[in-house]
Amino acid sequence: MGIYRPYYVVVKEGSSIRGALPLFEVRSLILGNRLVSIPFSHWVNILCDGDLAILQKLLSFARDLARKRRCRYLEIKHGQPLSEAHGLERSEHFFNSVLDLSRSIEDIWSGFESGSVRWGINRAKKSDLQVEKGSTLEDYRRFYRLELETRKSQGVPPYPFRFFRNLRDHLGNGRKLRLYLAYLDDVCVAGIIVLCHSKRAIYGYSASLKKREYLRTQPNNLLLWTAIKELHDDGYQEFDLGITPPSNKGLLSFKTRWGTENYKIPYYYFLNRAEEVPVVDRTSKGMRVANDILRKLPISILERVGPFLLKQVG
């Protein structure tokens, strides 16, 4: 068995499925054995159509599975309030940042901070930057090269290229997946990937070259503004900029400057063998040491070892 083992828990009545809870057992050398719904996501609703009896059955099965598999803990990223009667501990560690797209584009623009966001967009417009929609496999390779450089500068492990290839192959382009690339003098200097479902879009991945000559043209601001305008024109209601731990104050500040509403998002835990709810602290000594090591690795090595490390912390 690999690091991840899936369990798709369902409640059936006759031939009808009344509820569903996707779980993955993660067997990590770093964080131990745990049960998560779902790794690498920031929230995933339990599907039960508000039926508390169905919800209880799903959560009871999940707790029993965590005991059976001797997991350290069960983590449910439901993202919405649940009754404390379900035997789970509630944690509101992460901020979720969401931009309201239901307003006029003028109102959205006025919500951006003038001294950084609007200034950056206007500066980018005056430069020679060109934004293009990517669709080919080579476009995704260009983004991945940016991704490697960005992850190295951050000191965090990168995804493997096959992850982005699979996004392209299985989600396609247009309504479910959008890749925006910024070019300066025929050099691809930045890119973002947006995931779309129903009336909600998610700011999934962002990467850029770190040379000052490129960054001073504000390519990331232009990319994000381009995506926001297109999503608004296409009728999307929300643009989810993802979750942020409170220790990452710089990232939370960046999202706030784009006019997002930031609110604590609830996760739920059953502590089977763990003594306390796990908390992400990017300022801890261990995290800082790991970041420094990864920053010093050549990209060719980081590309090989990074995906293995990333699997351990999903």
Amino-to-carboxy terminus distance:
16 Å
CATH domain topology of the largest domain: Aminopeptidase
Give the CATH superfamily of the largest domain: Gcn5-related N-acetyltransferase (GNAT)
Q: What count of domains describes the coordinates?
A: 2
Number of helices: 10
Radius of gyration: 21 Å
Order of helices and strands: EEEHEEHHEHHEEEHHEHEHH
Q: If you average the pLDDT, what whole number results?
A: 93
Q: Which architecture of the largest domain would the CATH scheme give at its second level?
A: 3-Layer(aba) Sandwich
Biggest β-sheet description: 11 strands, mixed
Shape field: globular
The computed structural class is alpha+beta
Strand content: 25-35%
Helix content: 25-40%
Number of strands: 11
Low-confidence stretches: none
CATH class of the largest domain: Alpha Beta
What is the topology, as strand order, of the major beta sheet?
1-2-3-4-11-5-10-9-8-7-6
